[in-house]
Amino acid sequence: MQGTVSPEAIIDNGIMAIDTATCLHCGACVGACPPNSIFLNEVLITFDDSCTQCGLCVKTCPVGAIDFPRGHKRSELR
Ligand code: SF4
Ligand code: SF4
To answer: What are the pocket residues of ligand 1 if the criterion is a CB atom closer than 6 Å to any ligand atom?
Structure first.
């Protein structure tokens, strides 16, 4: 169905979640991340532990491919 995201497309490492089916690999999020926590290659986008969950990448992504895990910051998760 158009507009839905396959669960298999979401990579969620508990820090940030990326919709790999939507990501354009444009690199905008990489440049926007203050602690350089985002790593992008031709296939994968990953986040490391230096992420502060500031949300800049979420705001920067032109297609909404990044979000907090399950839509919430770690501090909000139980
Ligand atoms: S939330 Fe902030 S620190 Fe974490 S990956 Fe995105 S821009 Fe970088
Ligand atoms: S800004 Fe969005 S579309 Fe571009 S590489 Fe990052 S997650 Fe993918």
So the answer is: 16, 32-35, 37-38, 47, 51-57
Ligand 2 atom at minimal distance to the Cα of residue 64: 2
Domains of the chain, each with CATH number or no CATH:
7-70 (3.30.70.20)
31: three-class secondary structure by DSSP:
helix
CB 32 within 8 A of CB 60: yes
- For the stretch 22-71, pLDDT in tens is 999 999 999 999 999 999 988 788 889 999 999 999 999 999 999 998 88
